[in-house]
Amino acid sequence: MNGATAPADKNGYQASAWHFAALLGGNTALALGPWLVRLSDTGPVSAAFWRLFLPIPVIAYLAWKGRSSGPIDRKLMLLVLAAGVFFAFDLASWHIGIERTRLGNAVLFGNSGSLILMLWGLVVLRQAPSRREALGVLAALAGAAILLGRSLDISTATFVGDLFCLLAGLFYAFYLLPAQRARSALGQWSVLLLVCLAASPLLLGMAFVLGEPVWPGAAGWTPVVLLALSSQIIGQGLLVFSLKHFSPLIIGMALLTQPAIAATVGWLVFAEVLLPPDILGMVLVAAALVLARSVSRPISNPSPS
């Protein structure tokens, strides 16, 4: 693979083959998360706890290595801790949904935060949507309606699972608003560390309230350790390395590898067959996500609530 850096495009993005491989690798690692959640024999919320708790020492080291020399903004730290609360609810909702619906649906709906952020930008700026934005909203609504209808045809359990994943997308959007605001000042790994410190005890408390088994049983530690490594270290690390080198459109298109991989795993491992209406619904939602990522609307001083 040629690691030479390509010339910068007119928007200033400059990426090499290594950056592109990292972008795909990061999305692939994240796409395997739902499979590992199902493989673990803890509860789904407990798996989310281990996903954030186990990698804290590694993330703390990376945050220390990348720390800035200036004083730490305590208000931003509190903002990130608030973001961690939303992330805890995001992971709890998403992992519960993963247990109840098809993997492809779970990944698509779990990533709907991009579309919600686009709509949030429209509300903040008090502007009518552009043609591209309106097309994205219509595609998302049509695709979601098809997928929800198909889930309801299969069983009420998969329909409820889709709703949990959609709720996770909503929580993820409200996690991103304060987290994105703090990343430039605190650094990606410092933000992730604060989020893990805020979210993991909350997830543990939710697991106890729900009566879930927290300690791994017969399946052992392998699924939860792989979940923590693939989602929080490998996936996040590769994306941190690559994202700044690509336009939002390319990032949105790379994001589509996640539902494709998840749907393939669901078919091979769990016999989750996709019929033509399922594929049509997934294509519509995926197209909406790409449109949402490619639309850039500034959000001035986004509020965490």
Characteristics:
14 helices, disordered C terminus, 305 residues, 75% helix, disordered N terminus
Description of the molecule:
- This protein is an all-alpha fold and 305 residues long.
- It has one domain (20-294).
- The protein contains 14 helices and no strands.
- The chain has helices spanning 17-31, 33-39, 44-53, 56-65, 74-100, 103-110, 113-125, 131-154, 156-186, 188-209, 222-242, 248-255, 257-270, 276-294.
- α6 crosses α9 and α8 (131-154) packs antiparallel against α14 (276-294).
- The radius of gyration is 19 Å and the shape is globular.
Short description:
With about 300 residues, the protein is an all-alpha fold.
